[in-house]
Amino acid sequence: MKKTLKVTGKVLAVFIILNLLGAGVLYTYFTKHKKELIKKASVEIGDRIMASVKVKDADISWFGTFPYLSLELKDVNIIDSSNSSNPIPFLEANHFLVSFDIFKLIKGNFHINRVLLSDGNINFIRDSNKISNLHILDEENPSKKASHPPKQTLFNFMTLNNIRVYLIDKSEQKKYDILVKHLTCESDFDDTVTSFKINMNTHINFLGLNILDGYYGKNKDIEGSFPLFLNSKSKILTLKKIKLYVDHEPVIADGTFHLDTAKHFQLDLTAKSISFENARTSLLEKTQQTLSMIKVSKPIDIEISMHGDTKYKSIPHVNLTFNIKDNILTSPGGKFAHCSMTGNFMNEVDLKLRRSDTNSMMTVTDFDALWNGISPIHSNKIIVNNLIEPDLNFDLQASCRLTDIDSLVQSDDVNLEEGIAKIDIVYKGPSNISSKIIPDITGNVSLSNAEILYVPHNMRLTKCNGLIAFHHTAISIRNLSGSLGNSSVSINGKVNSILPLFSNSKAEMLLNWDISSHFIDLTQLVPLISGRNHKHRNIKKEQKTLAGLSYAIDSFAEKCNIKTNFSISKIVYKRFEAQNVIAELSLNTRTGWKIQSLKLDHSGGNIMLNGSVVQSNDDNHKVLLDVDIHKVDVSKIFYAFDNFGISSFNYNNLKGLASLQANLQLDLNDSAKIIPNSLKGEASFRLENGELIDFKPIEEICAKIFPTRNFKDIQFAELKDKFTVANYKIKMDKMEIESNLIHLYAEGTYALRGNATDLTIQVPINNLEMPDYYNAPENKGLNAKTGLSVFIKAEDDGKGVIKFKYNSLGGSKKKVKSSKHDKVPSPGT
């Protein structure tokens, strides 16, 4: 053993001594011929790549390409000076080491075996006129071709350390920026095939295949050790399942690149476990931005197959598949736990059309997840055609909280606050509003214990249950029940077509529905006729996940005409109560509400009316009504409507059964109250079994004529007359008033407010006879012979006080002496 070690030591010693002697000889030779060698190296490189080569200094390096002896060139510049007076160097390197055959060098034959570049730049430049510095690599200098044997490679082994590779091609809008931290390339030439063994560690600053579209793979580290094969005869570069590490995650690449004029290529990439973020940030910038709202917690599987050619403006065919299993996906629409799906993307749906985003399709199959960790959701297939104007085709089965759906829809006007929706639909149509694609929806949405807020009118529907069925472009509402405050409603209806929401169609969108209820408090419905309060959530369009659906919901109330049939057992509105309400109403988006018919029972009688309610501005509504009231308790109706704004008497002053036919016009404010001075119209009325109780103005008038009679309770025969109402003034035709105390006639104008009263009262002299208290009074008629009468003029003095003047029928100017009773406060003062 000891003998063996001694022999080995002697051999090593001899080898070292020989190498040191050889190095000394070489160093002596290099020192003596340094300038000559620098010139030979510059000329040799320049001849092979057709360029100007400048070398500042050189030295012998033993360790730079150990165990090979190398010539180290310092501050090397390789410049294509043929096309510019101030060219950008093709190569700049602080250190350029080349190894060579020592014996050939001594004989004066310089041949490069190995190359090492450190700390520099390689620049590939082509201007907009397609003038490039790349031609320096095309072929050897023609004048020197004969001096080199055919099929000889430029080098056998290359190493790059800290070299920035920069390419800009203005003619084809390309720009690359790559930092080669470390790369070794060993070449082996065998017949027509050159094999390259590559070991690299690079950093991609950016890749711009077409900078008008943006950049790929910004700030990506790529590492790997792999072979490449170049066939010089067929001009094909081959990749055979090479393994690359993109940001330390493995990707398998397999493909061929044709370097002939066709420039065809086929590339397949497989990543069996890569993070979604890594895959996303490797894509085109605008695609990265689109996908930035999505986060996937665990790695996914991706396979990409591309083929085409690398010519300018040529777009390769891309087919991408991905697989997600039991993952967590977060998006603007919520968090999807236990998410599984498979997907596919292709950019050539129609072979006759150009490959582009408009000719692309994304398909997702077998989508399963728990939406926000609670709501199960499933889709057999989701297809997205045309990435510019997306066309969706999907089925959806889910049981979701309405709050989750609200986070997707994000309507400005409708807020889904509570409840569950069971969804089973098939949708074909646009993801946004489109005039080209008509949505087609079939299936059902079932609501359970829902709570919905209509923001513009602050109306909240609670305890809502029912079914919404979709029939292509029509929608049915089935047994939808809920509560508005203390009012309950049940709704069945149908929307004939939602087409106008998604297109410029002039077709009418009509909602027909039937509403029934046991009880409705009309104060809960007042906001429906009030102006929009302009309050909404103001979510920006770009922040909305389903902007198209949000727009459709928000524009529904503005574009949809409504025809409604009401059947209500009881309604109340403040003091007003009615039973057996049957109504037919319609809402036109341009003309407002129209009451085709309304019938109800009230205070022992019934009321029928029709008319319209038109919004004149945000706060006021103009109401036109034809009213037919039949035998309604007059005291109750005055009570119900707060005496119709009359301050001179109230419901306690009246009794009897009133019938009325009227054509009225009035204005309502946004609280559905009558605006002062807006009531006007014509009416004829009849009062049966009427009584006037404690009405001071009548008491004071009559007391002047019959001071001994008690006018606190006046019982009338049938009262009937025609009158007009305007500006708080009632203009009466001549009306007979036959009572148990007095018989008289009245006509003229009576002011409900203000100082415009002007009445003429005719009191027949036969009233001096004692009245018949025991028999019901009977009217004598407007044309009855009354004999002599006293005429009383009741006028406002302009100061709010009514004064009375007496005149005889024969034109007598006899004046009745005025007393303190002559001055009666004007009604309303």
Topology:
Blueprint: H1 2-32, H2 34-49, E1 52-65, E2 68-79, E3 91-100, H3 102-106, E4 112-126, E5 157-169, E6 174-190, E7 193-210, E8 214-216, E9 220-231, E10 236-246, E11 249-258, E12 264-274, H4 276-280, H5 285-291, E13 295-296, E14 300-309, E15 317-331, E16 334-346, E17 361-371, E18 375-385, E19 391-401, H6 402-409, E20 414-430, E21 440-454, E22 459-472, E23 474-484, E24 487-495, H7 499-502, E25 509-517, E26 520-521, H8 526-529, H9 547-559, E27 560-573, E28 576-588, E29 592-602, E30 605-615, E31 621-633, H10 634-640, E32 654-668, E33 680-693, H11 696-705, E34 713-715, E35 719-726, E36 729-738, E37 743-751, E38 758-764, E39 789-796, E40 801-808, E41 824-825
Parallel strand pairs: 4-5, 25-27, 26-27
Antiparallel strand pairs: 1-2, 2-3, 3-4, 5-6, 6-7, 7-8, 7-9, 9-10, 10-11, 11-12, 12-14, 13-15, 14-15, 15-16, 16-17, 17-18, 18-19, 19-20, 20-21, 21-22, 22-23, 23-24, 24-25, 27-28, 28-29, 29-30, 30-31, 31-32, 32-33, 33-34, 33-35, 35-36, 36-37, 37-38, 38-39, 39-40, 40-41
Overview of the structural elements:
With 829 residues, the chain is mostly beta strands. 13% of the residues lie in helices and 53% in strands. It contains eleven helices and 41 strands. It has a 41-stranded mixed beta sheet that branches. The radius of gyration is 50 Å and the shape is rod-shaped. The termini are far apart. The model is unreliable at 7-22, 139-152, 540-544 and 809-829 (pLDDT under 50).
